[in-house]
Structures are given as C-alpha cells and as structure tokens.
What does this fold into?
Amino acid sequence: MDFYALHHQNQPLILANVWDACSAQVAHQAGYHALGTSSAAMAAMLGYEDGEGMSFEELLFIVARIRTVTNLPLSVDLEAGYGDTVDRIIDNIRQLAKLGVVGINIEDSHVVGNVRHLDDAIQFAGKLQEIAQACPGMFLNARTDTFLLNSENALEETLYRGHLYASSGAHGYFVPCVTRPDDITAIVRDITLPLNVMCMPALADFTTLTALGVKRISMGNFIHDRLQARLKDLLCLVRSHHSFSDVFCDENNR
It folds into this structure.
C-alpha cells in the first residue's frame, strides 16, 4: 500500500517518529507501517534547538542513514523548508525524493530569535502551491501551528487555513496540539484533507480518535524525550550506586 493510501483507510496511520537509523530499525521491527522523522528529536540528538538549528546537509545525512536500514515509507519533517526561497525549498525536497522519501511535513510558522511566529496564511498557501506543482508524487502534509501557538480563535483560524491549504495542493493537514474532541470533529467535518494529530497528554486513545475521523497519528519528539529522561536516570543511578546493577535490573527480574 502506498503512502497516500495509508491516509485513506478505515483505521488511522500510526506513524512512528524516529530520529536516527537505530530508532528507525526498532520501529520497523515493532511492526509500524510507515516512519516520520521528528525535527525536534533530530535537532536534540545533534545538540541543537528545534527550529532549523541544524543544517539541511545534516538533516540529509541522517535521512540517508535511515533509508539504508529500512524500506518503510518515510516522511521527513522539513520544518519551514530549510530555505529562504521557494526554489531552494523545492531543491531540498527533490534531494529528499532522490533518497526515496515519499512525504514531507512543512509548517506555517518560523522560529526567529527562539520565538515561533505564525506565517501569513496566503503567502504560505502560495508556497505550498509552487511546491505541489514542482514536486508531484511527494505527499505534502501541511502543518498549521494555530493550536500550538494558542492563536486567538484557534479553531476558526485552523479551518480557514485548512481550506486554503487544501486548495493549494496539500495532501494532509497536520494540527499539532489539538486535543479536544469537539475541535477535532469540526476540523474533520469541514476540511477534506486527512487530519493528522500529535501525541499530547490530553489526546484521546486511538479508538476514540478513529471514531472522530482522524487519519494519521504522530508521536512528535515525546518518545525521544522519554528515552533521554530514562538515560539520565540510569546514568545517575550508576554514578550514585557505584555499580552497574541498575543497568541489568529489568533483565534480572524477568
């Protein structure tokens, strides 16, 4: 089943968000049907802040390594595009396509001075349209940060932008931080694009999300963050206990 078709099933696509070759291998072994990179997790792995802190060349290298260990459909979080012009963004996407990448996330916000700002909707829609025309076959998951940034009248703005992006060539609509069932229902009802939601503490379980009409569920950087917290705990235990017993405690309890 191709990547586009995975967004139009009765059950939503559960996307494993990965950040390197090792995490991609584990996700493949765990039985996921598709992978997506997490820009925040990749940036953290390299010691950068999220928001295009790492270079596109670094991103491309990591994606290339992921592609060597798995043939699962791979979507890349391209953030705002890693380019000051649409032509540069299109060139970036074409380089990803040469590696076998089948989809991208591209967001309607930019990080400037460590502060994220929402882009003008019309301008972003124009960028989407140019990308869609230049990169046929690439699944364009348009991300809006209206809920993430707690925009005034977030639902109304999300619906407005969803219509614009759908008419500009997007194939999916990613709304991180939307969690209320009523908001999800309104987006699914009003926007023709398959809706992608992201792991959040208040997000409903997958059965409920399926009933609401969600078509794609992402993990973001939360799995990576949880693993990093566990790593820190384990390293602290080794140092404080002057022993490696905690490294093997789970194994010994089996």
User: Anything to note?
Assistant: The chain has a mean pLDDT of 96. Residues 246 and 253 are 11 Å apart (CA to CA).
